[in-house]
């Protein structure tokens, strides 16, 4: 019985945040719909500002749980610009919580509402969220031969024409790195060797298409590329063996007390436009990541192991930047659920909003 109580208490650590974040989604969609109607006759730029502001409020709610609620310690190596910039954010990819790390950096630049993603095509089927990410400026892509370059160029060009602020998050590896999936790692290394590239141990061989198309399509609109390397300290085992990164539920259960983020700003002039040279440039960036991660996990020097090069700065996010969003969305959701008509609208939004969203994202991805 005691064990059951412990397990139940443990599960509540992530069920409560999950219920709140998912539970406020219908109200978010209804709020977006109302704002969209109100701005229908106004210039598109005004709608984009409204959409970014609304998204900022919702993502602040998400960060309340992933940062303030968990009490995770964020250690940043490198100088994150204080001002907002139009950027492409390139990072290593190891778990679903990686999406939240982008939010953590963006809110520190007051650019949270500008975050948009390049996503796997299958994620467009997420109820409510799949459609919304697309209309917010996200791009769904397929792999290899199925990659639709023209569609991506069209989507990004339409936003740069409007001067839409851009914080585009891309994970060039395409697949999450898991140290326990030895075959996946060896296949990635074999592919790199076949292509005349260096084999990597702690990251997968990056795919260049989406990154190259994004950067070249928006080159005149971008200020820089952010090269990000992330380590969840929970992956640092007692031996030199790297452990799998935490899932979102595990992160919410406070199983990763510290996250190390290496930040490097790359000027646009340093990035070659030609695809053949861009491929080499991108792989070189991942070689640098691999070297830093190898030192982090495997160094025998205690002054180097468990750290990135340089001096890490602890970065605390004030609860006053996230708590108001929790109160705002909670204050809109709870009254709706307290009336019969409100509950009907809530359920219908989940059902019909999802169905219409699936139709939308397949007709106009």
From TrEMBL:
The chain crosses the membrane at residues 14-39. Residues 87-212 form the Phospholipid/glycerol acyltransferase domain. SMART domains: PlsC. GO terms for cellular component: endoplasmic reticulum; mitochondrion. GO terms for biological process: phosphatidylinositol acyl-chain remodeling; phospholipid biosynthetic process. GO terms for molecular function: acyltransferase activity. Pfam families: Acyltransf_C, Acyltransferase. Belongs to the 1-acyl-sn-glycerol-3-phosphate acyltransferase family. This is Phospholipid/glycerol acyltransferase domain-containing protein.
């Amino acid at each position: 019985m005691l064990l059951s109580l412990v397990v139940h208490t443990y599960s509540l650590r992530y069920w409560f945040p999950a219920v709140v974040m998912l539970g406020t989604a219908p109200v978010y969609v209804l709020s977006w719909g109302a704002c969209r109607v109100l701005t229908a006759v106004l210039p598109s730029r005004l709608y984009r500002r409204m959409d970014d502001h609304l998204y900022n409020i919702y993502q602040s709610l998400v960060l309340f749980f992933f940062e303030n609620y968990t009490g995770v310690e964020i250690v940043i190596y490198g100088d994150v610009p204080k001002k907002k910039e139009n950027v492409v954010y390139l990072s290593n990819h190891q778990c679903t919580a990686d999406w939240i790390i982008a939010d953590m950096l963006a809110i520190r630049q007051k650019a949270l509402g500008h975050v948009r993603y390049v996503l796997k095509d299958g994620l467009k089927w997420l109820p409510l969220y799949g459609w919304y990410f697309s209309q917010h400026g996200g791009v769904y892509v397929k792999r290899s031969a199925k990659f639709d370059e023209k569609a991506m160029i069209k989507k990004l060009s339409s936003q740069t024409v409007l001067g839409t602020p851009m914080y585009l998050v891309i994970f060039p590896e395409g697949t999450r790195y898991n140290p326990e999936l030895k075959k996946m790692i060896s296949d990635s290394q074999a592919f790199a060797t076949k292509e005349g590239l260096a084999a990597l141990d702690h990251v997968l061989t990056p795919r260049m298409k989406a990154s190259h198309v994004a950067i070249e399509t928006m080159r005149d609109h971008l200020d820089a590329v952010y090269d990000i390397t992330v380590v969840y300290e929970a992956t640092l085992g007692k031996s030199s063996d790297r452990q799998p990164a935490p899932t979102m539920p595990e992160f919410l259960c406070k199983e990763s007390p510290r996250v190390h983020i290496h930040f490097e700003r790359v000027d646009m002039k340093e990035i070659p436009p030609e695809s053949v040279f861009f491929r080499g440039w991108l792989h070189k960036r991942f070689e640098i990541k691999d070297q830093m991660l190898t030192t982090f996990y495997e160094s025998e020097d205690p002054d180097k192991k468990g750290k990135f090069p340089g001096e890490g700065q602890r970065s605390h996010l004030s609860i006053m930047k996230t708590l108001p969003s929790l109160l705002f969305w909670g204050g809109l959701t709870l009254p709706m659920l307290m009336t019969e008509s409100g509950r009907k609208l809530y359920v219908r939004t989940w059902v019909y909003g999802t169905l219409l969203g699936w139709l939308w994202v397949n007709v106009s991805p």
